[in-house]
């Protein structure tokens, strides 16, 4: 009797957990679904009460209006260039810095690491004016370098890599590689990099999403439409007199699709790296 009671309690607890997961998944997916529904309906349907919850037939029309209003594909291409190059640079430079902080001893190490952590507490808006002054002195306005170069070093990325390398790369493995005559960079490349692939995937997801969704800094340094990233270009869909919500949400939805694809690809890599094992020969 007690065994049956115990099994019932376990099944009820599992059912409760699954129910919570279903609710959480629904709450997470619903905004994206609703945005897709609005992107497929006419503006009059969107403004109706109650609003539509079933996809309509205006998907092609709304997206055609987006293409006719802004340089959508050009902005997507610019965002891809900025996001991919910046993310790759952050992964390389931050993992190098994190490896140095985790496995090397040098003068001022703790002070420098604390200084990096302090920069995480400063709002990025406070650095907007001096950063803009530097960009103008370098004559990088209306150039994608104005977005890529300042984003190559990330304080959170250094902190994340330092913590992950400290806990997952054994000191004995590093010492053995040095005894075999490996240089510091070769130790990093051959020993640390295969181990920290899950950390790479996680940081890549965070950084790529941040760069893709960044609006304020690209708005400040990009003035010409040919150099707009997608977030800046989407601003052109808003008219001061007539607001076509179907067109706006269509552009927003299709601008989100590449981000979802990148997230799913990197998420698969993250899970695969964990299941294959931490240390690879």
UniProtKB/TrEMBL annotation:
Q: Please report the stretch or stretches of sequence annotated as the ABC transmembrane type-1 domain.
A: 76-266
Per UniProt, the keywords (alphabetical) are:
Cell membrane, Membrane, Transmembrane, Transmembrane helix, Transport
How this chain sits in the membrane, per its record, is: Multi-pass membrane protein
Keyword set includes Transmembrane helix: yes
**InterPro entries given for it?**
MetI-like (IPR000515), MetI-like_sf (IPR035906)
What Gene Ontology biological process does one annotation of this record name?
transmembrane transport
The reply to whether Cell membrane figures as a keyword in the UniProt entry is yes
Classification via CDD domains? TM_PBP2
Which PANTHER family does this entry report, sorted A to Z? ABC TRANSPORTER PERMEASE PROTEIN MG189-RELATED-RELATED, ARABINOOLIGOSACCHARIDES TRANSPORT SYSTEM PERMEASE PROTEIN ARAQ
Q: Which family does it belong to?
A: Belongs to the binding-protein-dependent transport system permease family.
Q: Mind telling me what this protein is named?
A: Carbohydrate ABC transporter membrane protein 2, CUT1 family
Organism, as annotated: Gracilibacillus kekensis
């Amino acid at each position: 009797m007690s065994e049956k009671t115990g099994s019932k309690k376990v099944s009820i607890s599992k059912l409760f957990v699954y129910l919570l997961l279903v609710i959480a998944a629904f709450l997470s997916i619903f905004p994206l679904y609703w945005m897709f529904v609005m992107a497929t309906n006419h503006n009059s349907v969107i403004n109706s009460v109650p609003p539509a919850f079933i996809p309509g037939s205006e998907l092609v029309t709304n997206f055609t209006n987006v293409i006719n209003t802004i340089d959508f594909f050009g902005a997507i291409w610019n965002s891809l260039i900025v996001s991919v190059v910046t993310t790759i640079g952050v992964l390389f430079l931050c993992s190098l810095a994190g490896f140095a902080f985790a496995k090397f001893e040098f003068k001022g190490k703790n002070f420098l690491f604390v200084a990096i952590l302090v920069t995480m507490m400063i709002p990025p808006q406070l650095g907007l004016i001096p950063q803009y002054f530097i960009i103008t002195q370098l004559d990088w306005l209306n150039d994608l370098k104005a977005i890529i170069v300042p984003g190559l070093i990330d304080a959170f990325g250094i902190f994340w890599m330092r913590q992950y390398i400290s806990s997952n790369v054994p000191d004995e493995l590093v010492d053995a590689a040095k005894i075999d005559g490996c240089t510091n960079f070769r130790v990093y490349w051959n020993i640390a990099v295969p181990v920290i692939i899950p950390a790479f995937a996680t940081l890549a997801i965070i950084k790529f999403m941040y760069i893709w969704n960044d609006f304020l800094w690209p708005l400040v340094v990009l003035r010409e439409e040919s150099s707009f990233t997608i977030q800046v270009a989407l601003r052109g869909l808003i008219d001061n007199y007539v607001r076509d919500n179907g067109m706006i949400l269509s552009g927003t939805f299709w601008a989100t699709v590449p981000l979802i694809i990148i997230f799913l690809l990197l998420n698969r890599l993250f899970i695969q790296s964990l299941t294959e094992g931490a240390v690879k020969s």
